[in-house]
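Issue: ligand-bound run for zinc ion - logging full I/O for the record.

Environment: standard queue, default settings, no custom constraints.

Inputs:
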Amino acid sequence: MLSLITKKPGEPMHMSPHYIPLTSAYLCTDCNCVSNCSRQCPACASEALMGLSGILNREVEEIRQPSYTYATALVA
Ligand SMILES: [Zn+2]
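Outputs:
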């Protein structure tokens, strides 16, 4: 039978990259998974969640955009 799942037993499941803003990242203290759900862990359904933004206490850095200015060209 043809299976669409190519994962072999014991092989970590390939996950596409995702990101969670720190302000909405919660760590489940039961299974150590990080999610953006503040009420219940989507992995183990535990409600023992810890907000990471308060713990890590990091300021959000602005992404610096390169700035270009026009200047008069110097002609020799
Ligand atoms: Zn969990």
